[in-house]
Amino acid sequence: MVGDNKVEISVTQQPDQQERGSQRTVDVAPAMAGHTVPDLTPTEAVFELKDVEVAYSGKPAVREITFDIFKERITALIGPSGCGKSTLIRCLNRMNDLIPGAVVSGTILYHGEDLYGAHVDPVQARKRIGMVFQKPNPFPKSIYDNIAFGPRVLGMKGDMDEIVERALRRGALWDEVKDRLKSNAFGMSGGQQQRLCIARCLAIEPDVILMDEPCSALDPISTGRIEDLMLELRENYSIVIVTHNMQQAARVSDMTAFFTVDVDSDDDDGGRIGRMVEYDVTEKIFTTPSDERTEAYVTGKVG
Ligand SMILES: Nc1ncnc2c1ncn2[C@@H]1O[C@H](COP(=O)(O)OP(=O)(O)O)[C@@H](O)[C@H]1O
Ligand SMILES: [Mg+2]
């Protein structure tokens, strides 16, 4: 399997490789092999970020971030630890509002409207733009009540049993839990808990799902289930995922943004600032990236 997925990459400026010529084979398998993206036509933008910067207590953590996130596509944010992936994904549903000292500047449009406009209620925004975290965080309640919680608080209309079943089906969990809906969610496996958290998000009818390393606490089988689920959800939702797992980014995402962290030359204490290096169709990022820093990262030479 691995041998079927070699990609020729032309490498320039690699001193240690020069005598051996500038062509070499980079193993991207099985990453691109499982990549099932039938249609890469750009869709309308869900988010348009323009010159976004986030500072914590006056110190910038990410700077000059400009890119569009497309509707019904999966967008992966990748890059070394500390480059600002979590900081950036939190900007997309105003979660940074909850972090003391965090200040977001620049512009973020959500469906063409300023997400940070004075008229926007961040609580309302978070209903449309749900988030799933690294560690599954079910409430200490039954499976049923985990899902029903949001719809009840929001006073959503309709039969609650149907709302719960629909969300659990969309979360690819229904068949596993339909006979124990009243059991405590803490009795589920980690992978099931994470699908429950995704289903809980879906129950309140969002249009975007943000996922910050959703599989990093899960085993490979649970990870595979979540990846399959993401590919199903992509039909109806826009998904942004932060992942440390290159193969995961390659397998599930349509677009990939690569970030790096630079030492800030303006900062006397050597402050580090995250910046976007490259944003493109995932296949391009993983096979023929434009920037040598991206290439070094996706081939595992740094990171
Ligand atoms: N709540 C916070 N308060 C202060 N600094 C933070 C906070 N969260 C992140 N940072 C800083 O912002 C930078 C980017 O962090 P983060 O967004 O967590 O990166 P990543 O998710 O890519 O690992 C780091 O220097 C980190 O120390
Ligand atoms: Mg992070």
Summarize it:
The protein is an alpha/beta fold and 303 residues long. The chain contains 10 helices and 12 strands.
Spatial order of the strands forming the largest sheet: 8-9-10-5-11-12
User: Secondary-structure element sequence?
Assistant: EEEEEHEEHEHHHHEHEHEEHH
Radius of gyration: 20 Å
Measure the end-to-end span: 25 Å
Which whole number gives the mean pLDDT? 87
| Beta-strand segment tally | 12
The general outline is globular
* CATH class category: Alpha Beta
Q: β content, as a range?
A: 25-35%
For the biggest sheet, the summary is:
6 strands, mixed
Number of domains: 1
The assigned structural class equals: alpha/beta
Provide the CATH architecture: 3-Layer(aba) Sandwich
Q: What is the CATH fold-level name?
A: Rossmann fold
Q: What is the helical fraction, as a range of percent? A: 25-40%
Query: For the record, what is the CATH homologous superfamily label?
Result: P-loop containing nucleotide triphosphate hydrolases
**Could you list the spans in which at least 5 consecutive residues all have pLDDT below 50?**
1-31
Describe, in plain words, how this protein is organized in 3D:
- This protein is of the alpha/beta class.
- The protein has a single domain (2-298), classed as P-loop containing nucleotide triphosphate hydrolases (Rossmann fold, 3-Layer(aba) Sandwich), CATH 3.40.50.300.
- The chain has ten helices and twelve strands.
- The strands form three sheets. It has a six-stranded mixed sheet, with helices on both faces.
- Strand 9 (208-212), helix 7 and strand 10 (238-242) form a beta-alpha-beta unit.
- Helix 4 packs across helix 6 (190-203) and helix 6 runs parallel beside helix 7.
- The longest helix has 14 residues, at 190-203.
- The radius of gyration is 20 Å and the shape is globular.
- The two termini are 25 Å apart.
- Residues 85-86, 242 line the site of magnesium ion (MG).
